[in-house]
């Protein structure tokens, strides 16, 4: 897995950092010890985000997931963050296995540019 851990310039923006911290706390509340990891990809991962950019996040689960079920589970949390911070957060739930093993150009790109996020 090529996912990096590094500092992103846009995460120094208080509202983005606060939204990520709240998201991580909300996921911890929903999932407990099985809370998914967060990997930013897209324009924020490339430090190319603008005011119009959405925040693309993988929700990385240690077990197989049904993406539509997990999206439905986190939608209330995402809606609250979107309203509170004026930030469109787009999530893609995926198992760690699928993240590592899928070989389409999309997944290779996400693994190359993805940045693991830790709250705080």
Give a short synopsis of this structure.
The protein has 120 residues and is α+β, with helices and mostly antiparallel strands. It has helices at residues 14-31, 67-85, 96-101, 105-113; strands at 37-41, 55-61, 89-95, 115-117. It has a four-stranded mixed beta sheet with strand order 3-2-1-4.
Keywords:
120 residues, 4 helices, Beta Polymerase, domain 2, 4 strands, 43% helix
Write the layout of secondary structure elements.
Layout: H1 14-31, E1 37-41, E2 55-61, H2 67-85, E3 89-95, H3 96-101, H4 105-113, E4 115-117
Residue runs with pLDDT of under 50 for 5 or more positions: 1-6
The CATH topology: Beta Polymerase, domain 2
Q: DSSP strand (E) fraction?
A: 15-25%
Tell me the helix content. 40-55%
Kindly report how far apart the N and C termini lie. 24 Å
Q: Give the count of structural domains.
A: 1
Helix- and strand-based class?
alpha+beta
Averaged pLDDT, please?
88
Report what the structure shows.
There is one protein chain. With 120 residues, the protein is an alpha+beta fold. The chain has a single domain, classed as Beta Polymerase, domain 2, CATH 3.30.460.10. It is 43% helix and 18% strand. The protein is built from four helices and four strands. It has helices at 14-31, 67-85, 96-101, 105-113; strands at 37-41, 55-61, 89-95, 115-117. The relative contact order is 0.25.
């Amino acid at each position: 897995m090529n996912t990096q851990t590094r500092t992103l310039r846009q995460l120094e923006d208080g509202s983005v950092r606060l939204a990520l911290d709240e998201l991580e706390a909300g996921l911890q509340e929903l999932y407990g010890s099985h809370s998914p990891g967060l990997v930013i990809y897209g324009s924020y991962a490339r430090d190319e985000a603008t005011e119009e950019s959405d925040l693309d996040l993988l929700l990385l689960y240690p077990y197989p997931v049904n993406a539509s079920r997990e999206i439905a589970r986190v939608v209330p949390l995402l809606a609250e963050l979107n309203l509170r911070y004026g930030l469109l957060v787009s999530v893609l739930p995926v198992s760690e296995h699928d993240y590592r093993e899928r070989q389409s150009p999309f997944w290779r790109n996400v693994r190359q540019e993805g940045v693991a996020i830790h709250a705080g």
